[in-house]
User: Which sequence fits this backbone?
């Protein structure tokens, strides 16, 4: 088994969503802290694709941003290739390893500076990270990167608005690859695209992964997309990971009630015409999460213990599940 | 070159410019005003700063077409025998110069403050914007009077003439920066959260570089519109201050000073001394304002 490239230990991130200070004083309101990510631990092995799935607001995008350094974690430890990224004493080293990770964003219409030519967009990491010495070298590398993602080198002189969503996402990927990373964080890279284009982008990503030996952390809410690309899948619910398993196993034998609920909601051809179980209930307000297991208000197997005690992510057979019912053998 | 010109001609802005006769006329008038002001030393028949060429015998000559007027002074002369046409041309030069410099100063100050406040956020943002709020609660004229008063006390009497123009620029500029800061801060807040800015952060670019290369070009559109309209306002403020006697001294008159000086003779019948500079001021400000209005509408996609 390959070694871990990225490791998160009990990582948490709070957001202060309080009203402005004056309002709090005048209206006597308390501070409000949103726990977007609460004690998340997992590791990503070299060369694999780990997918994080969950409903909107479950904290999966926050995890992505914590890893690439767009947010500082409030608690916990993030380790990349043996270097603790959260260690303030090792700034220089952290900066050096951070160069090896890049990010692909969700919205291809917002992720490219509208006033920059494609050439400048892709050349930016080359110039900033000092990966190309001369102008001609930059030009050659930009052309190579464009070809790598299935665009023409001539496209370098165009502006982003001259491209379709799928093509823009290719440009985004080219920019991410320009820094020669070995780890890519992909935050819903296909969810803004048409279904036909989604497949093209996913195929491109798998192809690049094989060719450049990349490791992916893939964030998505779309189980169909995830089943296509992921080796392992982590299911998130309200800032925590509730189940972490190999992709095949998760789809064939989901353990956590929430995972089952999500899978039951996925439409497929065999089921057409038959009634489906919709995802019951709604995600609770993350400002006031339920006691104990956050999922208990929606869970068909909830018992008294689930209301009191928060389940930990534990080995259960060949998967890891955070559920009292699974632990007790009730399901 | 020809290709570049053709592209310019076909540009959206050029198209909307051609379609609006008022704008074309305003641009033409503004151009004439600016050309007259810039070219004053070559166009003006006399040099009003040259005391040696003045003679009091020529004082209070009416415009050429009125009785007693001379062709040598088409718009008449003032109390010191200065040619009104020449003083207007030289005055417009000072008015425009002060207006442009004040706008530039306000723009640089405001855009910087807005960019930093919007991008850095938090306490920096709160402090900068509270300063802006405080500033906004004083009328521009009051701030200008205050700065001018302080400068007058701080400096010896004989140096007032030299510092008058820099003080004017400073005070008009300071009273105008808030508008830029607020607009830029608002747009920066929007741009900062766009993914292209985050991508630059992931690459590891310095915050200053991100502000300058990524955010700034994307927030400048509305700033240009404000600046154009602000030029007109700044010229008016300068004229107001000069009219109130705290602006440029009468030895180097701007349009506002000319109006004030001429105002004293309005009731004794020498109307041309104040009316012509007034007409020149209104023409200049109106044409610049119309251009600004057009630019605002042309750059607003919702009005297309």
Assistant:
């Amino acid at each position: 088994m390959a070694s871990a490239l990225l490791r998160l230990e009990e990582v948490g991130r709070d957001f202060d969503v309080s009203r402005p200070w004056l309002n709090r004083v005048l209206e006597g309101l308390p501070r409000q802290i949103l726990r977007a990510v609460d004690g998340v631990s997992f590791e990503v092995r070299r060369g694999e694709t780990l997918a994080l799935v969950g409903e909107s607001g479950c904290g999966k995008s926050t995890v992505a941003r914590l890893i690439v350094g767009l947010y500082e974690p409030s608690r916990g430890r993030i380790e990349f290739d043996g270097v603790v990224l959260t260690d303030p004493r090792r700034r220089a080293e952290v900066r050096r390893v951070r160069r090896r990770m890049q990010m692909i964003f969700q919205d291809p219409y917002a992720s490219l500076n509208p006033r920059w030519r494609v050439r400048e967009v892709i050349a930016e990491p080359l110039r900033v990270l000092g990966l190309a010495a001369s102008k001609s070298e930059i030009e050659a590398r930009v052309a190579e990167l464009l070809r790598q993602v299935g665009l023409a080198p001539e496209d370098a002189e165009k502006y982003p608005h001259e491209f379709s969503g799928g093509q823009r996402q290719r440009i985004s990927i080219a920019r991410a690859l320009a820094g020669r990373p070995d780890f890519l964080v992909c935050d819903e890279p296909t969810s803004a695209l048409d279904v036909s284009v989604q497949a093209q982008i996913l195929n491109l990503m798998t192809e690049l992964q094989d060719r450049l030996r990349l490791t992916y952390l893939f964030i998505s809410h779309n189980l169909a997309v995830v089943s296509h690309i992921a080796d392992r899948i982590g299911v998130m619910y309200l800032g925590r990971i509730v189940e972490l398993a190999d992709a095949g196993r998760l789809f064939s034998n989901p353990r956590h009630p929430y995972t089952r609920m999500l899978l039951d909601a996925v439409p497929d051809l065999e089921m057409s015409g038959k009634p489906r179980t919709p995802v019951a209930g709604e995600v609770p307000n993350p400002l006031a999460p339920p006691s104990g297991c956050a999922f208990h208000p929606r869970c068909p197997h909830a018992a008294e213990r689930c209301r009191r005690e928060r389940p930990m992510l534990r080995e259960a057979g060949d998967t890891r599940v955070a559920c009292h019912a699974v632990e007790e053998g009730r399901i | 070159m020809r290709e570049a010109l053709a592209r310019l001609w076909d540009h959206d802005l050029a198209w909307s410019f051609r379609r609006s006769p008022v704008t074309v006329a305003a641009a033409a008038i503004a151009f004439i005003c600016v050309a007259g002001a810039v070219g004053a030393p070559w166009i003006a028949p006399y040099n009003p700063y040259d005391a040696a060429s003045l003679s009091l015998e020529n004082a209070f000559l009416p415009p050429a077409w009125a009785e007693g007027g001379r062709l040598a002074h088409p718009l008449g002369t003032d109390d010191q025998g200065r040619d009104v046409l020449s003083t207007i041309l030289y005055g417009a030069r000072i008015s425009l110069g002060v207006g442009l410099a004040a706008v530039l100063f306000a723009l640089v100050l405001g855009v910087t403050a807005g960019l930093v406040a919007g991008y850095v956020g938090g306490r920096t943002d709160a402090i900068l914007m509270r300063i802006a709020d405080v500033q906004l609660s004083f009328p521009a004229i009051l701030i200008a009077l205050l700065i001018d008063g302080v400068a007058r006390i701080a400096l010896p009497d004989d140096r007032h003439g030299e510092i008058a123009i820099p003080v004017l620029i400073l005070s008009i500029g300071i009273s105008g920066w808030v508008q830029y800061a607020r607009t830029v801060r608002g747009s920066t807040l929007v741009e900062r959260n766009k993914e292209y800015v985050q991508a630059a952060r992931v690459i590891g670019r310095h915050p200053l570089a991100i502000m300058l290369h990524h955010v700034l070009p994307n927030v400048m559109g509305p700033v240009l519109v404000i600046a154009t309209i602000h030029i007109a306002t700044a010229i008016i403020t300068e004229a107001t201050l000069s009219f109130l006697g705290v602006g440029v001294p009468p030895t180097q008159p701007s349009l506002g000073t000319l109006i004030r000086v001429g105002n004293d003779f309005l009731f004794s019948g020498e109307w041309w001394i104040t009316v012509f500079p007034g007409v020149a001021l209104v023409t200049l400000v109106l044409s610049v304002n119309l251009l600004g209005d057009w630019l605002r509408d042309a750059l607003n996609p919702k009005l297309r």
